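Format notes (please read before filing issues)

Several people have asked whether sequences and structure tokens are stored in separate files. They are not. Every record keeps both together, in the order shown below: the sequence lines, then the token lines. Line labels are part of the format and must not be stripped during preprocessing.
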Amino acid sequence: MVGGRSERFGTDKAFYQIDEVPLWRHQVHKIEQLMPSEIIISANNKQHFDTTHKVIIDTEPNRGPIGALIDCLNSTRIERVLILAVDMPKMPISFLGELVCSGCGSVPIYENGMTEPLAAVYPKEIIQLAKNQYLSGSLSMQELVKKAIKEGLLNARKITEPEIEFFANMNYPPET
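Then the structure lines:
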């Protein structure tokens, strides 16, 4: 997912470069190593990506990650999708692989019950739940995944202490 507004960051995070490579390419490279049948980049209408992968432009602006999830699920025949936010550069391929290999929907969860819905695997069956929630006026991914866990659409995958750093996101540009 790269379609956020990056308001706190000041510029589009997707194109922020680490070692002369934009963040979006770093994240796509991780996913490519998992050898998926398809990679979908969820973007807003102001972004352009030089890639052969499918780019899905938000069907409606300002719907946040829940809108991007709905759009991605609507754009594919694949039964499960791995969602990875562009601003989690410390997320290792091994953790993503574990989520994918779980064989079902899987969302990382902390001891306190908070989830990490932007590094998770979602089954196609979650789409109606996501649409209903969006239509009710809620854009909360936390709310969506908690409902999906209750309904058996997602499994909760406990985050261990050493894994917490994987979820550090880049909300502000690094100080130089």
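For reference, the curators noted about this record: The chain has a mean pLDDT of 89. The chain has one domain: 13-167.
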